[in-house]
């Protein structure tokens, strides 16, 4: 006779939509090959798709927010038609401490912070937000800033913190943000750090060999919430948007956002390896943006250099009298609402003036990815997640994908219908690619009807046709954030630095 034990699900697991369906955590780290494939995996697709995202190993009772979970990397290695999937937690200091105690010791962003401790100092660096590839390693990052974790791209095993390298001792204590930028042509890694203490921001560059090349303060008027940065061939662009944490709420141990429509958006443009006194500030209309598509330099008809930056800021909701609806804007920012537009800024280095304008407010897209070899150089195509307009849970639905053609001002959207949840999907150049869009867009899709996760591979030149291959995974990939594509030749152990 066998006995079955009925395990009572814990109430917070039932009540919280951030822990259900495609958001529900997984508890196993697996390696899987011999995967079912619908269609055919292209043999000229070689490299690694890796995506970060929150997967709480121990859920703390109380209001769990999607952003609170421990960082888990999900990797899909493509090798001449064969595919291997693996997933592993980023073994952060905080997670190792939780494991030792068998519980989550840290408050989440919707939970009460300990008495007398600033929220930013009380939270766990989960390293759950972003992942990039530099100097032979994956680098995993957290959006609120903290230590960057190095991860082995073959095994996804955590190697250690970036600042443990004695050459990088100056990074100790800096709150390095998610969304560093890698120049795949020079192998350089550009990053920024921000926090609540003067000067509120730093900017730096790691050389292709991992050594620290540049580190300068970027003085802001006060603490801000920058999320991304941009690079061109010769410059870096840092963001100062008029969005702040309400200081009174911070003192009381909670987060509450303030948007100041009376302030300007400000952008620091600095030569890539420049000094603090070479920073030039440009201003623009008040706005808030999470993600940059790309930036580059252009020479205009008068022979002046313009730095161009394209991104997906929140659209600015207006009231009937034409004034900004700040309440609605804060609601969409605070809850990751679903109202974004494609936007362009042009910073004229000769005149110091900014020209800005809308590129597209018809499609609602975010999580832009480009061909990585065009990072900082003028690109034509951007592959964005199409944001669903109906929200079925607290978080928005990643409903499909769009390919923008910035040269023609057109876009192709692909939306397979309800029941499919997408992920940020990087562009993977085909072997011996001859054009910017000669390659594939690779991303996880949660197939709700079949209750399974899949990897969709789409030929970027035939975007509207949908995936050429759907790889069925044996374990769900919980919804997550940012990703990268690592070209196969970088993984083979050959070149770890500059690329032609
Ligand atoms: Fe982000």
Your description of this structure?
The structure is a single chain. The chain has 500 residues and is mainly beta. Helices cover 7% and strands 36% of the residues. The chain has 6 helices and 33 strands. It has helices at 11-15, 93-101, 119-122, 247-251, 326-334, 488-491; strands at 31-32, 37-39, 47-51, 72-79, 82-89, 130-134, 137-141, 149-151, 158-161, 181-182, 189-194, 201-206, 212-217, 230-231, 235-240, 243-245, 257-259, 265-271, 280-284, 289-299, 305-313, 342-348, 354-360, 365-369, 381-387, 398-405, 410-414, 420-422, 427-429, 439-447, 452-459, 469-472, 483-487. Strands 2, 28, 29, 30, 31 and 32 form a 6-stranded antiparallel β-sheet that branches. Strand 6 (130-134) and strand 7 form a beta hairpin. The model is unreliable at 1-9 and 493-500 (pLDDT under 50). The site of fe (ii) ion (FE2) has 8 residues, from strand 20. Fe (ii) ion (FE2) binds at residues 129, 143, 178-179, 227, 290-291, 482. InterPro entries: Carotenoid_Oase. Keywords: Iron, Metal-binding, Oxidoreductase. It holds the Pfam family RPE65.
Taking the alpha carbons of the first and last residues, their distance comes to 67 Å
The shape, in one word, is globular
Number of helices: 6
Question: Can you give the helix content as a percent range?
Answer: under 10%
**Structural class of the helix and strand makeup?**
mainly beta
List segments where confidence is low: pLDDT < 50 over at least 5 consecutive residues.
Answer: 1-9, 493-500
Biggest sheet details? 6 strands, antiparallel
Strands, count: 33
Strand content: 35-45%
* Rounded average pLDDT: 92
Bound molecules: fe (ii) ion
InterPro entries: Carotenoid_Oase (IPR004294)
Organism: Hydrogenophaga defluvii
Cofactor: Fe(2+)
Pfam families: RPE65
């Amino acid at each position: 006779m066998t006995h079955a034990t009925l395990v009572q699900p814990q109430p917070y697991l039932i009540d919280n939509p951030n822990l259900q369906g495609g958001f529900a955590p997984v508890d196993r780290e697996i390696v899987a090959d011999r995967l079912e494939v619908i269609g055919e995996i292209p043999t000229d697709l070689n490299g690694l798709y890796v995506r970060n995202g929150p997967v709480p190993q121990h859920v703390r009772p109380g209001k769990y927010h999607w952003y609170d979970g421990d960082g888990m990397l999900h990797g899909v290695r493509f090798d001449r038609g064969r595919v291997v999937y693996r997933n592993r937690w980023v073994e952060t200091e905080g997670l190792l401490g939780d494991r030792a105690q068998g519980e989550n010791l840290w408050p989440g962003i919707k939970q009460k912070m300990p008495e007398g401790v600033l929220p930013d100092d009380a939270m766990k660096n989960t390293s759950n937000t972003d992942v990039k590839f530099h100097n032979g390693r994956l680098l995993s990052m957290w959006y609120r800033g903290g230590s960057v974790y190095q991860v082995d791209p073959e095994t996804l095993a955590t190697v250690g913190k970036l600042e443990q390298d004695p050459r990088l001792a100056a990074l100790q204590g800096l709150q390095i943000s998610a969304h560093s930028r890698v120049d795949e042509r020079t192998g350089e890694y550009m990053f920024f750090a921000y926090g609540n203490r003067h000067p509120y921001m730093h900017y730096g560059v790691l050389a292709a060999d991992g050594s620290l090349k540049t580190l300068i303060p970027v003085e802001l008027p006060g603490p801000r919430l920058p999320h991304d940065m941009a690079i061109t061939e010769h410059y870096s662009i840092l963001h100062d948007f008029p969005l702040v944490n309400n200081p009174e709420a911070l003192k009381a141990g909670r987060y509450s956002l303030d948007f100041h429509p009376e302030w300007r958006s400000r952008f620091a443009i600095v030569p890539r390896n420049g000094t603090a006194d070479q920073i030039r500030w440009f201003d623009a209309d008040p706005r808030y943006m999470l993600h940059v598509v790309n930036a580059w330099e252009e020479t205009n008809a008068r022979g002046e250099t313009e730095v161009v930056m394209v991104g997906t800021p929140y659209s600015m909701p207006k009231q009937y009298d034409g004034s900004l609806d700040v309440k609605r804007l804060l609601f969409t920012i605070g809850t990751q609402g679903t109202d974004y537009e494609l936007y362009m800024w042009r910073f004229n280095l000769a005149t110091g003036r900014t020209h800005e304008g809308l590129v597209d407010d018809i499609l609602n897209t975010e999580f832009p990815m480009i061909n990585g070899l065009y990072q900082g150089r003028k690109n034509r195509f951007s592959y964005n997640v199409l944001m669903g307009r109906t929200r079925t849970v607290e978080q928005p639905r990643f409903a499909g994908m769009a390919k923008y053609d910035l040269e023609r001002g057109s876009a192709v959207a692909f939306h397979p219908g309800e029941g499919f949840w997408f992920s940020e999907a990087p562009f993977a150049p085909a072997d011996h690619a001859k054009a910017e869009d000669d390659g594939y867009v690779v991303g996880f899709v949660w197939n709700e009807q079949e209750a399974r996760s899949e990897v969709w591979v789409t030929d970027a030149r035939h975007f509207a046709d949908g995936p050429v291959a759907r790889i069925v995974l044996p374990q769900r990939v919980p919804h997550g954030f940012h990703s990268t594509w690592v070209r196969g030749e970088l993984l083979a152990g050959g070149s770890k630095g500059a690329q032609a």
